[in-house]
Amino acid sequence: MEINISQQGALQVVAISGEVDLSTSPKVREALLSCIKGAHGVVVDLSAVSYIDSSGVASLVEAFQTAKTKGLGFALAEVSETPMRVLKLARLDQVFVIYPRVDEAVAAMA
Amino acid sequence: MTDQTDPNPPTVIEVRDLVTHYGTRQILNGVDVDIVEGEIMVIMGGSGSGKSTFLRHLMALQRPTSGTIKILGQDVWRLPQKKLFELRKKLGVTFQGGALFSSMTVGENIMLPLYEHTKLDRMTMEIMARMKLEVVDLAGFEDLMPSELSGGMIKRAAVARAVIMDPRILFFDEPSAGLDPVVSSQLDDLILRLRDAMGMTICVVTHELESAFKIADRITVLDRGNILFVGTVQELHDHPSERIQNLLNRRSEEAEIDADEYLRRLTGDKEEAEGMPR
Amino acid sequence: MAEGSNQSVAYRFFDKIGRMSTSALEEMGRHGVMIAESLYWLIIGPRMNQPVRLGAVFSEMMEIGVRAIGIIGIMAAAIGAMLAIQGIYSLKIFGAEGHVVVGVAFSMVREFAPLITGILVAGRSGSALSARLGTMKINQELDALEVMGINPVRFLVVPSLLASLIMVPVLTFMSMVLGLYAAALYVNAALGMSLAAFFDQTVDVLSVDDLTHGLGKAAIFGILIALIGVLNGFLVKGGAEGVGKATTRSVVQCISAIVVTDMLFALVATF
């Protein structure tokens, strides 16, 4: 699992790749929460995530809630099929702000 | 996670020549079963068919007399303890009565495996538990005690606990037992949803035909310790064997009566009655 | 066994005795295995990611020990006073009432404090352990632990065993103090001996040996109570009725084991 953080204007784009599971999700959580502290908004690029388990989704949920309480933007982008199924199971696809592409998310949130 | 459209999905549970006796009674006489990734396999049979014992073997709770069981490629009865613990994290089980710990709240029950096996943040664990409760339609029930729930709710909470670690394989022991048809059918829907969303392999032991036909990709029929049939629901319906058609039509079989043996049984001459435990 | 009716009474008698002794031996073996298994998980557990949780030990200590303080305190005080009353009554015959302190101190510290504590803990916690584990067994909760990759001995047995091993001696010490205090109050009222004089004499006659004798016994009682409670719970069969039977069995066995051990201990220690 790898996390790449890049700055796009006022937004931070967090690109996660590989498998997010019980052993790697704490790192995702940490990265997301620290990004929220220092940015105007966060876009999480999930295009390269091959597998995400519920601890990973839980980290996304926590980050989303934290961003919301601070009045920051938080969106998911390019959610591939496997993560999407996991989100749908808990009906989280209706909760998260999801964009089909990263640049769309950046444009919409800027 | 492998794609479900894989034409030859790998075998995740491989059972070979499984034999079990209780004293002189034969419970299983050489059972072979393969369960492949992503399928829902229903093990059916009447009471005394050996299906419950079979499930206990699969969950590595009870050692068979002989035979091998490989789960995810590992021979469960030849595994060192530490490896068995690791393997068990990839298995989830919903017991017949739910088996929630009565001294803990629903939320604590669901989080227990996380507590014991992971170093996740408390917040993450709580969110995960609540997510699973959402999935089983028990949102907001995390602070109740199991004794405050109905039978169907207990079972759904037990499912939430079974899937908390996102297991690869999920076992159900008699999911519809003690539930009314409506609740039971909701549970069947839940089983299907879990398979579709998480790509889990699911093994269900039941004697409910209706539920079996609804959820099964394949069905294994056990009868008196032998495998009578393995195949899809359609194949089961089309099967020519009279024994199976009787089973499907819920006709109990007229066993041939051995007059002498029957008389002895009725008069309680235990020593002579064959196979009776002392 | 078809010729069963022809067997002599003596044969059946000895047959029964034989069966009973083998099952008693088997049971003792099980206790041994349970101790060994508990030690194993206590020591090896952390290395297999199966550590014994301190929190569980504390909550068990609360249940076995702290919640029993009231009743054990009252009982110990009653026994202490009773010893003083009986002591003065019998010593009066020799005109030696002043020596009552010796008798009370020895019997309270060496015998009665561990015994009454052990019996009360057995009645409260030995039975509760059996009932709890028995219910967990028939509800498949033990199986559930197992399939979650949580060893039941590590998760349930070791905390109870440790808590009992720690709390029974602690409660016993409390019983000693309270029993002696109650005795001192009575002696003060009956003979006019001051509390200070009573405790001075007590400290004089008692040696460290007497204290370790009492507390050592208490530790053994603690282990016995937990083991018997746990094993009867694990061996429950056949639903709610089985749980009831196991609970009764566990109390009877605990108290018998305590009394017999007490006798053996006294025999060996005073030899």
Question: Helix and strand layout, with pairings?
Answer:
The complex is a heterotrimer of chains A (110), B (278) and C (271).
Chain A: E1 2-8, E2 11-20, H1 25-37, E3 41-52, H2 54-69, E4 73-77, H3 81-89, E5 98-99, H4 102-109
Parallel strand pairs in A: 2-3, 3-4, 4-5
Antiparallel strand pairs in A: 1-2
Helix pairs in contact in A: 1-2
Chain B: E1 11-22, E2 25-36, E3 40-44, H1 51-58, E4 66-71, E5 74-75, H2 81-88, E6 91-94, H3 106-117, H4 122-135, H5 151-162, E7 169-173, H6 181-198, E8 201-206, H7 209-215, E9 218-223, E10 226-231, H8 233-237, H9 242-248, H10 259-267
Parallel strand pairs in B: 3-8, 3-9, 6-7, 7-8
Antiparallel strand pairs in B: 1-2, 1-4, 4-5, 9-10
Helix pairs in contact in B: 3-4, 3-5, 4-5
Chain C: H1 9-44, H2 54-64, H3 69-91, H4 100-138, H5 141-147, H6 152-191, H7 195-205, H8 208-234, H9 239-269
Helix pairs in contact in C: 1-6, 2-6, 3-4, 3-6, 4-6, 4-7, 4-8, 4-9, 6-8, 8-9
What's a quick, concise take on this entry?
Chain C: It comes from Magnetovibrio blakemorei. With 110 residues, chain A is α/β, with parallel strands linked by helices. Chain A contains four helices and five strands, in the order ββαβαβαβα.
Describe what this molecule looks like in 3D.
The complex is a heterotrimer of chains A (about 110), B (about 280) and C (about 270). In chain A, about 40% of the residues lie in helices and about 35% in strands. Chain A is of the alpha/beta class and about 110 residues long. In chain A, helix 2 (about 55-70) links the parallel strand 3 (about 40-50) and strand 4 (about 75). Chain A is globular and about 30 Å long. The model of chain A has no long low-confidence stretch (mean pLDDT about 85). Chain B has one domain: 3-Layer(aba) Sandwich (Rossmann fold). Chain B has a six-stranded mixed beta sheet, with helices on both faces. Chain C has about 270 residues and is mainly alpha-helical. Chain C has one domain (about 10-270).
Write out key terms for the chains shown.
heterotrimer; A: 110 residues; alpha/beta; Transcription Regulator spoIIAA; 5-stranded mixed beta sheet; 4 helices; 5 strands; 42% helix; B: 278 residues; Rossmann fold; 6-stranded mixed beta sheet; 4-stranded antiparallel beta sheet; 10 helices; 23% strand; globular; disordered C terminus; AAA+_ATPase (chain B); P-loop_NTPase (chain B); ATP binding (chain B); ATP-binding (chain B)
